[in-house]
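User:
Can I borrow your eye for a moment on a structure tokenisation matter? Would you put together a sequence-and-structure record for a protein of your own picking? Please set it down just below, with no commentary around it:
AI:
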Amino acid sequence: MAVQQEDILDRLRRIEEQLRETTGRAQIRPPQNTASGGDLVVGGTRALRVLQASGVGDQMLFGQDGAQRVGRIWRTDGTIALEVAAAGAGPQTVTVYDGAGHPVLGDDRVWGLARPWVPIPLASALTFTSAAWTTIHRGTWHAHHPVVAAEYSLSAPTTTTCQARLMLDTGGPLVQLGPTLIAVATDAVANFTADPAAHGLTYGQSGTLLLQVQRTAGTGTCTLWHKGLWARQSL
């Protein structure tokens, strides 16, 4: 049976439509503002930059900047907020800046903390003879860290016994933190931590810490060295 001319023309039209549709689909580009199903990789001497909303100046930069690979975040006013970079050829450090560009928090290139500087507590000797619990140190603790760490020591002379304890006052009954330290004609050291289960405070609450002492036996003069209280992390 001979193929009619109309059948050939119809087939050509369908082929033309399919070709046009295929060509159109090939020209459709996927969205360029989303990365899914894989990693966004910036290698070599390139960097990922996020501009400010105005389009002028960086908001974030991760990658090559000059001779080193860095990470930087700026505030919307253009001031630097966070930086992972090195000064010269030394190792990189992490630095947090205030709004005026002053470094307020950072790690040291050798180890540990660079800023802020942390005071080192030095203990003076405090003597006592009271037979009743007596508060020898008092201070307010604002709970911005979950744990309080305490260290202090007692010295009791011959035939004398004394003790010390750390208490927390939040307006109700006093809560004892850590064990009672007892010295019997010798020296004794307390070194312990109290977590939220022990002190009962939540973030932002405050209480008064009381270091109390008592002579329980003998007639000698006892001595307390308060080596420090620290608010610290839970690990």
About this structure: The CA atoms of residues 143 and 204 lie 5 Å apart. The longest helix spans residues 5-26. The chain has two helices and 15 strands.
